[in-house]
Amino acid sequence: MTSGIIPAASPPGLEREHGTALLRMMLLIRRFEEKAAELYGAGKIRGFLHLYIGEEAVATGVMQALTPDDNIVATYREHGHALARGVPAGPIMAEMFGRVNGCSRGRGGSMHLFDVSRRFFGGFAIVGGGLPIAVGLALADRMLGRAAITACFFGDGAVAEGAFHESLNLAALWRLPVLFLCENNLYAMGTALARHQAETDIAAKGAAYGVPSSAVDGMDVLAVEAAARTAADAVRREGRPHLLELRTYRFRAHSMYDPDLYRTRDEIETWKRRDPILLLQARMAEPGMLGREQLAALEREVEREVADAVTFADAGQLEPVSELLTHLHAAAAP
Amino acid sequence: MTSGIIPAASPPGLEREHGTALLRMMLLIRRFEEKAAELYGAGKIRGFLHLYIGEEAVATGVMQALTPDDNIVATYREHGHALARGVPAGPIMAEMFGRVNGCSRGRGGSMHLFDVSRRFFGGFAIVGGGLPIAVGLALADRMLGRAAITACFFGDGAVAEGAFHESLNLAALWRLPVLFLCENNLYAMGTALARHQAETDIAAKGAAYGVPSSAVDGMDVLAVEAAARTAADAVRREGRPHLLELRTYRFRAHSMYDPDLYRTRDEIETWKRRDPILLLQARMAEPGMLGREQLAALEREVEREVADAVTFADAGQLEPVSELLTHLHAAAAP
Amino acid sequence: MRTTYREAARAALREALRTDPRVFLMGEDVGRYGGAYAVSRGLLEEFGPDRVRDTPLSESAFVGAGIGAALGGMRPIVEVMTVNFSLLALDQIVNNAATLRHMSGGQLGVPLVIRMATGAGRQLAAQHSHSLECWYAHVPGIRVVAPATLEDARGMLPTALRSPDPVVIFEHASLYPVEGDLADGAGAVDLERAVVRRPGRDLTLITYGGSLGKALAAAETLAREGVEAEVVDLRVLRPLDLPAIVGSVQRTHRAIIVDEGWRTGGLAGEISACITERAFYELDAPVERVCTAEVPIPYAKQLEDAALPQVDTIVAACRAIMGRP
Amino acid sequence: MRTTYREAARAALREALRTDPRVFLMGEDVGRYGGAYAVSRGLLEEFGPDRVRDTPLSESAFVGAGIGAALGGMRPIVEVMTVNFSLLALDQIVNNAATLRHMSGGQLGVPLVIRMATGAGRQLAAQHSHSLECWYAHVPGIRVVAPATLEDARGMLPTALRSPDPVVIFEHASLYPVEGDLADGAGAVDLERAVVRRPGRDLTLITYGGSLGKALAAAETLAREGVEAEVVDLRVLRPLDLPAIVGSVQRTHRAIIVDEGWRTGGLAGEISACITERAFYELDAPVERVCTAEVPIPYAKQLEDAALPQVDTIVAACRAIMGRP
Ligand SMILES: Cc1ncc(C[n+]2csc(CCOP(=O)(O)OP(=O)(O)O)c2C)c(N)n1
Ligand SMILES: Cc1ncc(C[n+]2csc(CCOP(=O)(O)OP(=O)(O)O)c2C)c(N)n1
Ligand SMILES: [Mg+2]
Ligand SMILES: [Mg+2]
To answer: Which of A64, A112, B47, B321 is the most buried (most CB within 10 A)?
Structure first.
């Protein structure tokens, strides 16, 4: 019930393989999004594009604690979550290109990634709108006797919405296995946490619903993983919700439209010194972990994956406009 | 910030006159509503009718702490609040008769009583819908440099609505003088508190917004008055919100449609032993306070007032249907 | 079998809960209280609190949870007590329930049924008297139905539950106590077609839900005057059964839409436009509308009566379109 | 003066804040961020955080607080970032802002201005591309306007602020960067009348907001083919200026409504019905509608383009109504 932050010191037994996997995923998200930003500039990607750069440790760490049967509900800033869940980069990029080989057949774009085979339920772009959905997914699991939990990501800004309050209460009241994951990056668009929350300790808000809560340094992927495992285990074991606050920061503007006038260079630079990729690289630089060579190989591998994703996306067809109404309803109506 | 209940022991210095006034008001509310129920049965009053019987100490006690400049926002269960605020019984009864001399010209009925001269802003029948309005009234006062506070009544059921969460956060964030008054009568229609709130300590919820909170025995009008004064003073002094939970019980069904199948006779009878009128009468029975005679006189006075209200209402005209659209907009449009 | 609309709706719920373990009912006071309109009375006792779920006052969360549960494999029936409160859940319905299948490229489906009471006429004043069916009928991705008869109260739910996509059912609150006969084997009905409830050759009265009775009563009055009004019950508000609507008007050449919604921007205007688009050259008179006055519904009975469509205002409109005094 | 729609809207805000101490602006990111569409950039610096208020993401609470502040004597301008998010505040608008004066028998008034961006066309997909003006236009007790020109972006706000009752202003997001000339003394304009933006004798194109430019472009194309379309900008969506609309149709005898809302149950159907009711015998053809396809707006450009009214679909509809190939 306490909202004390889990010490950033990462768990001792970091294995080389696991550390490499985490680093690889964070690098993949980073490079993927850098490429997306570039392609946005080139007009290949349109609409809203919200980058996760700086926050990679959150999705990457949390996903370690989930099984393939668990459900994921995310926001419009969800490339990282999709990648970390294992959605291939190609269909994500293709989605942003608006192609039919996109993970939502080009209908959703950056904000609405879906992959039902991985129980990745999207991609919700109305702030707070995903929380009730997550409660419902967990309810279905409970009623169907499935052991899965539902991981629900949302921002600090979403905490102010009524949906947060209603959803935490409902999940707690009905003892539903929802892992509420607040990605506290200190801003809701241009509005700083202290200017949208009267009580800025987000994890402390769980108490109003009897929801056990914790907070963790969201820049330390190992700490995130550990905290997420602890929380997910509790949700599984006790069959009731948990609220985990992940303290992080976005290095880029809110969206490609955002001139980012509300933060100082200083503040951003300070946070960049805690870049989750650098932090893990430092840790991995210990002898016997990941050499310079290996790191460079990893980088190349990731770059190839991103390049392949672009190739995949570029090869995708455009959905013919005759298909505009397809999927409005299921093929067979009642 | 603690939600410990204020001891029911009433403050020592109860004066005869004040005690009599409180008792008179509670009796007025009780008899007024008993009459309203009777007239509902007779078809004189229609629509929804929500009785406050059993909860009279709440509105009566709280109003003692308010000045004529303060604003009041109430729910659909607001006859008691209107009466305790000084809205005359006649126009309230006339409103329920749907007459033009009603306090809302017959357009609102029981759920929508208004008296702007007494800053009685209604009468909100969408559960939770009044809370944002109260925040706005307080904002206007603050911006206009007025010293008033806004008293906002709502039920325990409303606590589950997103509007509660959003409003408390906004009021706290902007340090607005709102006295949030949760009338916890343990039920939202037929749903018991423990079946709609994961955390049933309502006052404890203030902490999620940094809102100081307290709770009081809502059956003891003197305790209510004391708690409301303390809370209202704090709101005035500190210019920020307070959440006061008033623990009470409704003796009647939720509305005239409610068969009241969800509570035991026993439970109701137990609470009736703590009838706020009986409790105050007992206190007033002390030597030198209110004799049997005087009590009987008070009862007669109140009964006359209620009878007069019915006469007033009966004498009211029906608004001609040609006036249907009047007051849709102000007389002079832009 | 002699029964009521309320009991027919309850029978449909009971059958659904009995026959499909994925079905459950949730909403405010559907359990212990027995439903604000007593529709679900007894169901908690019969099916237990897991399948008949009282929710907190959290329209957004429990409607959203219904969507999520549908995604997760259940067949939820969510009761929003009345359309008035459904505004608090509209975001979930419009932005999630209605979009998820299309937006996910066909991967997701939301087999959700939402029931709500609607309508005015009981002196409940401005906040409790809305008729906002037209708003729901505007939204692609959902099907909207309005049972006006016992057969439909009994039969629309099972069909809705077979739909792989969201269905919103509007029950006019004044209908619950209506008595009538229901065939013993009454069961599922289509959610496709408008139906002629009374044939007539002179004009078509198009209506649905709580106004059907008024339209039929008006037709009776008119029949005594020698005017034979055909009464079409829309039944399905989205998608509209335009062939049936237009077909009737092509026979009668005159149409009046009776709709308890506010006039401007309501369903009646839509139907009027559709008829004109499809049968312009067969109309003997412009399509007319009998709707609710554009005002928050007042409490006082004479004002509320004056605001809503009534038998006599329908009759007057029919006389006018027939060119009768 | 050469300026943009965005700057015209900002000038209106600035003037309002300068001239009336009761006016303040609140909404998500109107302050430090400068407004999601940069409309309010610089206003926080000029007027301070008391009068330019960033709100939490709490649409219901801050719109409701706007209503309360209006009741309390202020003249709030509430910005709801986009109509998409306004669904979360709809209950406050419909059940409080629109009802309080009538329901209180004339005691209360809600002099509140709500601004919001609306519309599609920027590949923002299903949840961020709504055009729900028609829903607001359905609600008695509020006035709904849609500035389509720089003059109106500049002039509607001051008039709205003089209204004793709620006014909702819809700004189509695609208009903000539009450049044009604005007279130096440009100021308040009426909130009453539809305006003919281009005269023509052959048919009337009725539209508003973000579709005005498309309708004018279509009229240009048609002019080259010898068809003179009159283009009527509604400006005010509630109450509709029916005399102006019908007057134009009585001159041209043909009407097409262009509306970015979904077709069924949208504003276009309402206008079609109104025209038919008032000018049936003067119509040479049924009123037609060019609206958005009934589908959640897809992200992919070719799909979104196909879903929305476009110049060529408008032109095609005009040719068809003129009986041209
Ligand atoms: C209900 C709603 N209101 C406003 C918006 C516009 N908007 C999109 S993202 C955003 C900020 C959300 O902040 P936060 O929840 O902290 O998430 P972050 O973007 O920081 O990841 C806003 C205001 C929206 N999408 N939905
Ligand atoms: C948003 C909304 N949902 C549902 C209702 C129907 N309803 C009216 S009162 C009520 C119970 C409210 O309980 P509470 O807030 O505890 O107040 P009480 O009636 O006990 O005074 C309900 C469900 C409503 N009016 N508004
Ligand atoms: Mg954030
Ligand atoms: Mg209660």
So the answer is: A112
Structure tokens given for B3: 């939600």
Q: Residue A132: closest CA among chain B residues belongs to which residue? A: B162
Per the CB < 8 A criterion, the answer to whether D152 and D209 are in contact is no
N-to-C CA span, chain A? 48
| Of D129, C72, C102, D307, the residue nearest A114 (C-alpha) | C102
What are the pLDDT digits (tens) for B256-265?
A: 999 999 999 9
Integer CA distances (angstroms), B301 to A270, B17, B88, B257, in order: 73, 16, 14, 31
Q: Tell me which DSSP letter residue A222 carries.
A: H
Q: Are strands B150-155 and C179-181 parallel, antiparallel or unpaired?
A: unpaired
What ipTM was assigned to the predicted interfaces of this complex?
A: 0.98
Q: Say what percent of chain B tops pLDDT 70.
A: 95
Nearest chain B Cα distance for residue A125, angstroms: 19
pTM for the model: 0.98
Residues with CB under 6 A from ligand 1: A 77, 125-127, 155-158, 183, 185, 187-189, 254; D 28, 57, 59, 81, 85, 88
State the Cα–Cα distance between residues D138 and C215, nearest whole angstrom.
23
Confidence tier at B12 by pLDDT (50, 70, 90): low
User: Cis link prior to C239 (omega < 30° from 0)?
Assistant: yes
Q: Tokens representing C308?
A: 């809503």
Q: Which helix (H) or strand (E) holds D256?
A: strand D255-262
Mean pLDDT of B186-195: 98
D47's CB contacts (< 8 A; 6+ apart) are D17
Q: What is the pLDDT of residues A232-262, one digit of tens each?
A: 999 999 999 999 999 999 999 999 999 999 9
Span A310-331, average pLDDT:
97
CB A106 within 8 A of CB A95: yes
Are C172 and C119 in contact by the 8 Å Cβ rule? The answer is yes
SS3 A179: strand
- Neighbouring C-beta atoms of residue C313, cutoff 10 Å: 17
Structure confidence at residue B101 (pLDDT): 98
Residues above pLDDT 90, as percent of chain D: 99
For B62, the enclosing helix (H) or strand (E) is helix B56-63
- Between strands B178-184 and B187-188, the pairing is unpaired
- pLDDT at A12 (0 to 100): 56
Contact residues of ligand 2, CB 6 A cut-off: B 77, 125-127, 155-158, 183, 185, 187-189, 254; C 28, 57, 59, 81, 85, 88
D236 membership: H or E segment, kind and range:
strand D236-238
Sheet of C52-54: strand order equals C52-54, C23-27, C75-82, C113-118, C167-172, C143-145, C236-238
D277 as an active site residue: the answer is no
Chain B residues in contact with chain C using a Cβ-Cβ cutoff of 8 Å: 46-48, 95, 98-99, 104, 106-109, 111-112, 124-129, 157-158, 160-162, 188-192, 195-197, 257-259, 261-262, 318-319, 321, 323-325, 328
CB A285: neighbour CB atoms within 10 A?
12
A271: nearest Cα among A250, A245, A246: A250
Cβ atoms of residues B179 and B150 within 8 Å: yes
Do the bridges between strand C195-198 and strand C229-233 make them parallel or antiparallel, or are there none, so unpaired? antiparallel
What's phi and psi for B93, nearest 5 deg?
A: -60, -40
d(C-alpha C94, C-alpha A76), whole Å: 17
Alpha carbon separation from C82 to B51, C119, C120, C315, D158 (Å, rounded)? 21, 9, 11, 30, 38
- The pLDDT score that the predictor gives to residue D325 is 78
For residue A11, name the pLDDT band (cuts at 50, 70, 90). low
pLDDT value for C325? 78
| E strands, A133-176, in order | 150-155
Instruction: Give me the DSSP letters along C144-192.
Output: EE---SHHHHHHHHHHHHH-SS-EEEEEEGGGTT-EEE--TT-----SS
